Write a sequence for this structure.
């Protein structure tokens, strides 16, 4: 006999409480059930003795096995409870059969548990006094925020007051925050976590009239061919791949400079990997459009019936579409006028062999055979490279294929995160200081701040500085602005107020950070507002296919943490605004309902339905379980009916109701590449997401499963480059550039370190790293100059560059896997 | 690797009986750890009740001979219960938890910790099991059975091995085996 005791996981007893919730990470948003029961009252392995209703051991693919990482111990109603958070094997959508990713499958570890690495959750508001964060009361914290906000607005105007906030969070929190910032204060100095400015992230596609969000997962299964650009679905939208794309059997055309898992999968299963040079997407798609038209493979019926003519385009009222909208004849004329878009010309630019471009065009269209059902999906690798032009070029391909509104035919985003961005008020565009050729665009709030114009910034739920381009230059400026004037020396509210007010008056910046954990930006905060999180309140959110579900409260919040909506409401009331007297999140959801009317996230019918019956809208939504209902929701007699497919009425979001082509300007791209691309001995330093972690690792840096896999940030290096630079997997690398453009367009420096991961996932001359690893500011080598993309002020996030040098070794070989991540 | 797993893996090297280290073995339902000493006594940290199941102990099963093992030539065996499939392999390179004269022999459960499919395809070039035929998780046997890429929420459970003369014995399993609420409950023991 051995000494070893067997590993075990406690099972919920038959009377365990059950809540429904979805994973909070990727946009797929798998449905889960949370079973909670008092510690010490475990169930047993017989089906009759546990709430899972299954005999243990469970068979393969049962979807009913709770791994140890699906278990945690939480405080619920003040008492210790076990919790199992397990994929819902009975769900009728999304993660059929209870499948899951590594991220959601371990989400039980997210809960606050003082015996786990989550012990460093913020539990009280804090004030930075003499450089250190010191706990204060909520009364004092909200008083300071309200008084400093009022002082800033009264003396320097609302443009001096800024909010940097998640765009994706739960409906109730986004609504409450935007009600304060956009509705009451009415500042244009408001921007999302991922960009310097508000506004459309995929404007080129939007200008075709196609709604970017989001095609239904059933269409992935219906499709015969799916072109996927700039996003590895297996890694980062896992269940969409494993449950919908892979079983559907569509041939994949995978477009990415990296040979990722899905690239290898595509090639193995009759698809194509178009391994283009970074920043050359427009040339590739324009060449595909040209080849399709040359061969006569375009969807002629669709174009004849549903694509706008020049007179119809002239009737548009939106300036971008007026400026860049094109008819079929016009787009053909542009694309055929350029040698760059011949197969050979494109091969020279993109590095993709002409034959593969032609093969892809044939696969997408069926060539001279029957027309397949084709889909076009993309994400940040595409639109954070060159924003307007890339989304225009891929949108054109979708229109040419008629890939919209029909089963198995769609064009759109795969999604970066879930969707809860129902704002309470529209953006005050008329106040924005930025414009493009006389047309208003949402302001670059980072440039504005660097110029010293923002005196007060409220950061909500994001690693603000690390998430922006030229992040080290931005950090240096923030350090400088927050060092102006007196240091806060007292926890006396009036003394602290006067000292922070003096900073504002002397041209400095006060930073308030509303967060759940410390991150790379909270070091600049004067005030910390300790927020609640997922599973600690009843919330609602959509996934990437517009599926609306409730996320129920499961656990108590740690310490004195308060949910975001309540922080906004308290400050709003202290500032003297009305409309912040909500009792709970259901009240906010019901208020948000009418605001959602007419859009893709329209849940107004659900709210009306509930109110007519004297029910709570959250309770009505709960009846839809983890399967939820797809917005827009419509009434059908006494029923609420979801919308499976967008544009099914064969109408698009233009004045004419028709789709159109958009000018895919290669010259603008080529000029920009020359400004931001590698020079001298630099190489491309691309960045993005990977399978086992999420965003800035706010949870995953505190999850053993993830920290074993990724103890530090990595840099993928091609074996040829590795040989040239004399590095091996496990070496410690310095990545640096002195040629980065900052927020003002000036040259600055950027640098970070990472462990070498030598693999053929990247070609020579191209490296890849994680975009937001704590302590590894990869965005320091990406441009922070949004003026390079003046149409809507976005960063070229995915086109970083730098020199790579070995500076030592790590102790990670043997602890962290270095084998290729593209084995199929 | 956590301290808990390090100690367990250390035990796989054969040191446990000699030095009598205290081995934390399971995370109890309170999130605390249960410690089992060489004398079989148990200690649970924290103030709440220890886990209920402290009944069955792992059997000691002879699974292979050092002399018969070829590098990269995996052996399959069931352990500790019938139906609990494992792969033992001589990796050809020393690893932290390896046993044998070259410290390169390891064994892992081949029931994928994602959804239980058998992941038995060993790739010598990478010293990896996988990709799993169901959802493509690939596990690195030279790095504690962690998924180099994949959806499993646990590393592959590692079989504790000891070498006595030419004989390799399985003596326990670290981490929960797929499908089970307790790695030692729900099926008959393998025959010794």
């Amino acid at each position: 006999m051995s000494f070893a005791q067997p590993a075990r996981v406690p099972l919920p007893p038959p009377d365990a409480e059950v809540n429904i919730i979805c994973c909070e990470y990727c946009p797929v948003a798998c449905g889960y059930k949370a079973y909670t029961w008092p510690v010490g009252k475990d169930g047993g392995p017989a089906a009759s003795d546990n709430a899972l209703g299954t005999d243990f051991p469970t068979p393969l693919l049962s979807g009913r096995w709770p791994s140890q990482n699906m278990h945690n111990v939480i405080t619920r109603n003040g008492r210790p409870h076990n919790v199992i958070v397990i994929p819902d094997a009975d769900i009728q959508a999304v993660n059929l059969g209870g499948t899951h990713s590594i991220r959601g499958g371990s989400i039980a570890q997210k809960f606050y548990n003082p015996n786990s690495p989550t012990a460093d959750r913020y539990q009280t508001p804090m004030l930075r006094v003499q450089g250190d964060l010191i706990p204060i009361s909520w009364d004092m914290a909200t008083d300071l925020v309200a008084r400093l906000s009022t002082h800033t607005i009264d003396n320097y105007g609302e443009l001096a007051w800024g909010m940097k906030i998640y765009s994706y969070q739960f409906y109730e929190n986004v609504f409450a925050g935007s009600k304060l910032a956009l509705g009451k204060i009415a500042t244009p100095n408001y921007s999302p976590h991922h960009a310097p400015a508000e506004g459309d992230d995929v404007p080129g596609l939007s200008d075709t009239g196609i709604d970017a969000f989001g095609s239904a997962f059933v269409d992935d299964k219906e499709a015969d061919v799916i072109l996927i650009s700039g996003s590895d679905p297996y890694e980062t939208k896992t269940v969409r791949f494993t449950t919908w794309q892979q079983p559907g059997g569509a041939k994949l055309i995978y477009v990415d400079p990296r040979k990722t898992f899905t690239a290898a999968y595509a090639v193995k299963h009759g698809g194509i990997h178009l391994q283009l040079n970074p920043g050359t997407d427009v040339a590739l798609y324009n060449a595909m459009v040209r080849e399709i038209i040359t061969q006569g493979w375009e969807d002629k019926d669709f174009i004849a019936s549903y694509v706008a003519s020049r007179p119809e385009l002239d009737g548009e009222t939106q300036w971008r579409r007026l400026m860049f909208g094109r008819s079929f004849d016009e787009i053909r004329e542009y694309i055929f006028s350029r040698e760059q878009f011949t197969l050979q010309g494109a091969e020279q630019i993109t590095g993709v062999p002409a034959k593969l471009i032609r093969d892809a065009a044939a696969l997408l269209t069926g060539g001279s055979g029957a027309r397949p059902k084709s889909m076009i999906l993309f994400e940040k690798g595409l639109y954070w490279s060159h924003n307007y032009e890339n989304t225009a070029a891929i949108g054109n391909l979708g229109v040419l294929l008629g890939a919209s509104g029909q089963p198995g035919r769609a064009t759109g985003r795969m999604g970066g995160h879930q969707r809860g961005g129902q704002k309470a008020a529209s953006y005050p565009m008329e106040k924005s200081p930025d414009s493009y050729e006389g047309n208003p665009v949402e302001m670059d709030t980072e440039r504005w701040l660097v110029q010293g114009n923002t005196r007060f910034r409220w950061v909500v739920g994001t690693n603000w500085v690390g998430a922006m381009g030229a992040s080290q230059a931005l950090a240096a400026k923030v350090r400088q602005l927050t060092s102006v004037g007196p240091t806060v020396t007292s926890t006396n509210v009036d003394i602290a107020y006067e000292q922070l007010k003096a900073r504002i008056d002397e041209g400095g910046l006060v930073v308030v950070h509303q967060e759940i954990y410390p991150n790379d930006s909270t070091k600049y905060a004067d005030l910390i507002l300790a927020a609640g999180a997922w599973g600690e309140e009843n919330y609602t959110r959509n996934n990437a296919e517009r599926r609306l579900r409730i996320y129920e409260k499961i656990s108590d919040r740690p310490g004195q943490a308060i949910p975001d909506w309540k922080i906004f409401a308290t400050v709003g009331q202290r500032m003297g605004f009305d409309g912040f007297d909500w009792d709970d999140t259901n009240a906010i959801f019901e208020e948000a309902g009418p605001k959602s009317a007419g859009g893709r996230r329209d849940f107004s019918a659900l709210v009306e339905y509930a109110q007519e019956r004297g029910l709570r809208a959250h309770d009505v939504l709960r009846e839809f379980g983890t399967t939820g209902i797809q917005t827009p929701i419509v009434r059908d007699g006494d029923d609420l009916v979801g919308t499976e497919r967008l544009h099914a009425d064969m109408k698009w979001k233009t004045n004419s109701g028709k789709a159109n082509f958009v000018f895919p300007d290669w010259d603008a791209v080529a000029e920009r590449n020359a400004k931001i691309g590698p020079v001298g001995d630099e190489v491309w330093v691309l960045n993005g997401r990977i399978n086992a972690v999420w965003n800035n690792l706010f949870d995953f840096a505190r999850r053993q499963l993830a920290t074993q896999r990724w103890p530090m940030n990595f840099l993928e290096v091609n074996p040829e480059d590795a040989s040239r630079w004399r590095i091996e997997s496990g070496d410690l690398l310095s990545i640096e550039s002195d040629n980065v453009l900052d927020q003002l367009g000036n040259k600055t420096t950027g640098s970070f370190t990472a462990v070498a991961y030598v693999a053929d996932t990247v070609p020579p001359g191209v490296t890849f790293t994680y975009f937001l690893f704590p302590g590894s500011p990869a965005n320091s080598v990406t441009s922070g100059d949004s003026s390079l993309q003046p149409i809507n002020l976005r960063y070229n996030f995915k086109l970083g560059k730098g020199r790579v040098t070995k500076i030592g070794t790590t102790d990670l070989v043997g602890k962290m896997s270095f084998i290729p991540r593209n084995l199929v | 690797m956590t301290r808990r797993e390090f100690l367990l893996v250390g035990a796989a090297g054969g040191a446990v009986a000699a030095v009598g280290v205290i081995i934390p073995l399971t995370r109890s339902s309170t999130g605390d750890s249960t410690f089992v000493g060489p004398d079989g006594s148990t200690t649970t940290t924290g103030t709440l009740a220890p886990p209920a199941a402290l009944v069955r102990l792992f059997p000691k099963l002879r699974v292979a001979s050092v002399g018969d093992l070829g590098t990269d030539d995996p052996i399959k065996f069931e352990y500790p219960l019938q139906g609990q499939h494992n792969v033992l392999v001589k990796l050809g390179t020393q690893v932290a938890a390896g046993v044998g004269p070259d410290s390169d022999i390891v064994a892992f459960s081949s029931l994928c910790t994602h959804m239980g499919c058998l992941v038995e395809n060993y790739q010598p070039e990478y010293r990896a099991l996988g990709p799993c035929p169901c959802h493509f998780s690939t596990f690195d046997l030279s790095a504690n059975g962690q998924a180099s890429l994949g959806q499993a929420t646990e590393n592959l459970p590692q079989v504790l091995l000891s070498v006595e003369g030419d004989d390799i014995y399985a003596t326990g399993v670290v981490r929960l085996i797929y499908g089970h609420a307790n790695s030692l409950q729900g099926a008959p023991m393998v025959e010794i």
Notes: Residues 32 and 92 of chain B are 37 Å apart (CA to CA).
